[in-house]
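Practice problem: predict the structure.
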Amino acid sequence: ASGGFGKETVLFLDEIHRFSKAQQDSLLPAVENRWVTLIAATTENPYFSVISPLLSRSLLLTLEPLTDDDLRDLVRRALTDERGLGGALTLPEDAEAHLLRIAGGDARRVLTALEAAAGAALATHEAEITLETVEATVDRAAVKYDRDGDQHYDVASALIKSIRGSDVDAALHYLARMIEAGEDPRFIARRLMISASEDIGLADPTALPTAVAAAQAVAMIGFPEAALTLSHATIALALAPKSNAATLAIFAAQEDVRKGLAGPVPAHLRDGHYKGAAKLGHAQGYIYPHDVQGGIAAQQYAPDAVRDRQYYTPTRHGAEARYAEVVERVRERLGRQGGGPDPAS
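Answer:
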């Protein structure tokens, strides 16, 4: 690209994710017409933070986190270089290892932590930066997590998938990362409520009430005590028997509706409280189940188009095994002939 003086114009924009969509849109003409060569940097997932038209015209390069060896070289150079500490302090292996661990592959983070620890050591006239000094000056590991970026979704996804996989320890790890990063506890609670229905369902009917109670408690008490409630719920969900039968059931029913398999509501099930309903045949012939022995009236409930569809296929996991027996008995009483997915194991 050439500017007004025949020189190539390179525009570097740091943290482009902070630009609004309108501001990013304003860059398009210059990029499309090659008036500038745009180099943009972001710490966010560009697919979330950069507009598609700009992204499609760009070459995407991913800078991976630095390795421990890279960071170790950087720390040791900072200790000895005159532009750094100039050899004024030493750093034992355990303190160095802790710095590398909390850096999360980030050079700026490890240098910031080293600077803070070195300042504390120099203030007390110590000759080395001890592990205790590092721990005291760096209150906690700088949690690598951004509530507005892709890691927000990655860690939340890992939490739910760990619960689904019944790995209680992994679930608690991801929960801790979200808490330490300052995640909104209401967001975590909402994810737990979804997981209770999506991955546990009737295999443990107490899972959803537990998650709902946790959400209510979180709203009332907030952090830091809300961490205890979220831990309680996470452990309960992770160790509960699992079933996605409720999830598959509604998905299958919705798919039929989208395909147009609906049809009119059977006349005997229609609203009959208004004047003239009887003349239309509405609610006529309806059998009140409570008046029937066993409480199950052998009448048609579903529209003709899906009369024999069986959406709910219970597993034999946990409490759902009992529901499997019940649904089989009820369908037999109703005269349902089947027409759904294969029974879940």
